[in-house]
Design brief:
Number of helices of chain B: 0
Helix content of chain B: under 10%
Structural class of chain A: mainly beta
Number of strands of chain B: 11
Largest interface: A-B, 26 and 26 residues
Oligomer: heterodimer
Shape of chain B: globular
Structural class of chain B: mainly beta
Radius of gyration of chain A: 13 Å
Order of helices and strands of chain A: EEEEEEEEEEE
Distance between the termini of chain B: 37 Å
Helix content of chain A: under 10%
Number of strands of chain A: 11
Strand content of chain B: over 45%
Largest sheet of chain B: 6 strands, mixed
Strand content of chain A: over 45%
Chain lengths: 114, 108
């Protein structure tokens, strides 16, 4: 079955550590996105990528980094520079054309900093 | 750039109707609607691509007014399963933005 897989589902991190969240899709979608969601809040865009080896910052990119070495993979690293990283992280993809189609989401990764 | 939704929260009894509004300060070319259950990923409901077009999905429909840069989601005869947070979404350049969200609770 086609879809997006995020891992891990839950992650605990000590302050000062970098962590990497995995996002893999087998939908052959060109565009991939990372969003952050805080409790009771909406989704805020961290990074997005429309093509392999290219990505752009969203509204809250500070303290995060990404790579897009393969079409199907778009990992997100939460660095120690991110001051408040505890949140729910969602990865999404869509077949990018003239206009974006439906966004397909992974199940999310919940990061807690201890 | 984030679209603004209203109301922020609404509580309904089963069978009642609700309207959720989405407004953008920028020109809209398309509007998406998603529903998110607590702790889960958002689920796609529908896309509206043309001004004034109204689309339906069982008892959930939506309209899109390009000139006013607004979209509205209509939920009729609400069911308990409609509970969740509703987000509109729009594209801006190459980015995709979600609205501020509307929490909808349906009670028996």
């Amino acid at each position: 079955d086609g879809g997006i897989t995020q891992s891990p589902k839950y992650l605990f991190r000590k302050e000062g550590q970098n962590v990497t969240l995995s996002c893999e899709q087998n939908l052959n979608h060109d565009a991939m996105y990372w969003y952050r969601q805080d409790p009771g809040q909406g989704l805020r865009l961290i990074y997005y990528s429309q093509i392999v080896n290219d990505f752009q910052k969203g509204d809250i990119a500070e303290g995060y980094s990404v790579s897009r070495e393969k079409k199907e993979s778009f990992p997100l690293t939460v660095t120690s520079a991110q001051k408040n990283p505890t949140a729910f992280y969602l990865c999404a993809s869509t077949p990018w054309g003239v206009q974006p189609g439906e966004l397909f989401f992974g199940e999310g990764s919940r990061l807690t900093v201890l | 750039q984030q679209p603004v939704q209203s109301p922020q929260a609404v509580i309904l009894r089963e069978g009642e109707d609700a309207v959720i509004n989405c407004s953008s300060s920028k020109a809209l070319y398309s509007v998406h609607w998603y529903r998110q259950k607590h702790g889960e990923a958002p689920v796609f409901l529908m896309i509206l691509l043309k001004g004034g077009e109204q689309k339906g999905h069982e008892k959930i429909s939506a309209s899109f007014n390009e000139k006013k840069q607004q979209s509205s989601l209509y939920l009729t005869a609400s069911q308990l399963s409609y509970s969740g947070t509703y987000f509109c979404g729009t594209e801006g350049g190459n980015q995709f933005y979600f609205g501020t969200g509307t929490s909808l609770t349906v009670i028996p």
